[in-house]
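Below is a filled-in request sheet from our internal design queue. Each sheet records the structural input a requester submitted and the sequence that came back. We keep these sheets so that new team members can see what a complete request looks like end to end.

REQUESTER: design group, bay 2
PRIORITY: normal
MODE: inverse folding
CHAIN LENGTH: 366
BACKBONE (tokenized):
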């Protein structure tokens, strides 16, 4: 019994092992198949994902192409049909520009130079060179030159209605005072010389001071011209889109070119009259004869503004405004330099000639 039972138990174990081995083989084969299926599914998923990404990229490229084509079509329609406005930068002669900074520096330099010369003349107001040829007119001329340099600031910066109205009016009135003062000084030189000759007419005119009415009369005439200009066709802000295709130029339109040249022509008429009288009186025998200096100053003034007219019409953009500012500064500086710099040279460098004793000695020698 024991032997047979042992045999049977051995046989059963062997059979179990034999049965278990094919079952384990089946499990391994099934596990391998499942792994392969998972690998295949993952590969299919990656392929699908790549295809989706490619499809998205293609869609984005198509959208970009469509947007570019739509924009080009819109741009063509804008250019051909002119149904839309493309924004353009607005430009003007600003204080921050290099050209604007240069003009401002020039104006300030000449302004302070005029102030210094005015201080020198006030300090030496009792000397012969300052008292010669009407001391009061000398101070009027120096004081009127100050706003001439300052009025150039009205042409620089962002234009507005007030500056557009003040630009040409201030320029016309201030320069009328300056040129009419030079004209009055020229008349004074002629009257002072002719008063020494026999006869009472010139002496009466000199003593009466009737020539001093030249300044208010000339200024009133210019005010009437400017008033007519403002009443009929005042200046206004304008956008110039033709001078530069890519930019919009903001300028003060003079509105009436005829009125502007009437103001400029009246100044030229006064300057030409002053130049003619000063030229005729340049050889008068006077110790401190200003006629030569007045002649040169009016020659510079006329030369600047005669050159201004063709150059102004040939320039574009902000250079047109800069040309007008430069003409204002150059003509004012010409008057200041030609009339007052030689006198300052005698006052500061050669003071021995600026005394009553030297004046008397010079008269006795002649």
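RETURNED SEQUENCE:
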């Amino acid at each position: 019994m024991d032997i047979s039972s042992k045999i049977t138990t051995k046989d059963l174990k062997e059979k179990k092992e034999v049965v278990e081995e094919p079952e384990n083989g089946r499990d391994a084969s099934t596990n391998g198949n499942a792994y392969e299926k998972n690998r295949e599914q993952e590969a299919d998923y990656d392929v699908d994902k790549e295809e989706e990404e490619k499809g998205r990229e293609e869609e984005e490229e198509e959208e970009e192409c469509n947007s570019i084509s739509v924009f080009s079509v819109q741009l063509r329609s804008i250019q051909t049909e002119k149904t839309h406005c493309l924004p353009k930068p607005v430009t003007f002669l600003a204080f921050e520009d290099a050209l604007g900074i240069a003009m401002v520096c020039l104006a300030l330099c000449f302004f302070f130079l005029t102030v210094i010369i005015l201080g020198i003349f006030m300090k030496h107001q009792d000397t012969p060179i300052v008292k010669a040829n009407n001391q009061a007119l000398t101070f009027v001329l120096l004081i009127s030159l100050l706003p001439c340099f300052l009025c150039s600031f009205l042409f620089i910066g962002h234009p507005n209605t007030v500056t557009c109205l003040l630009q040409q009016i201030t320029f016309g009135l201030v320069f009328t005072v300056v040129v009419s003062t030079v004209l009055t000084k020229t008349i004074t030189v002629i009257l002072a010389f002719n008063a020494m000759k026999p006869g009472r007419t010139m002496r009466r005119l000199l003593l009466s001071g009737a020539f001093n009415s030249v300044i208010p009369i000339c200024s009133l005439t210019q005010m009437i011209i400017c008033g007519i200009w403002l009443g009929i066709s005042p200046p206004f802000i304008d956008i110039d889109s033709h001078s530069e295709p890519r930019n919009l130029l903001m300028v003060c339109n003079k509105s009436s070119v005829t009125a502007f040249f009437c103001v400029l022509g009246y100044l030229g008429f006064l300057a030409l009259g002053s130049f003619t009288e000063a030229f005729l009186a340049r050889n008068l025998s006077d110790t401190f004869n200003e006629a030569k200096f007045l002649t040169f100053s009016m020659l510079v003034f006329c030369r600047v503004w005669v050159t201004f007219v063709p150059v102004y019409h040939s320039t574009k953009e902000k250079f047109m405004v800069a040309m007008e500012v430069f003409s204002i500064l150059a003509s004012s500086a010409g008057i200041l330099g030609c009339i007052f710099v030689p006198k300052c040279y005698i006052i500061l460098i050669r003071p021995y000639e600026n005394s009553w004793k030297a004046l008397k000695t010079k008269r006795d020698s002649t």
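SHEET NOTES:
- The chain is about 75% helix and 5% strand.
- Residues 98-355 form a domain with the Rhopdopsin 7-helix transmembrane proteins fold (CATH 1.20.1070.10).
FILED BY: M.R.
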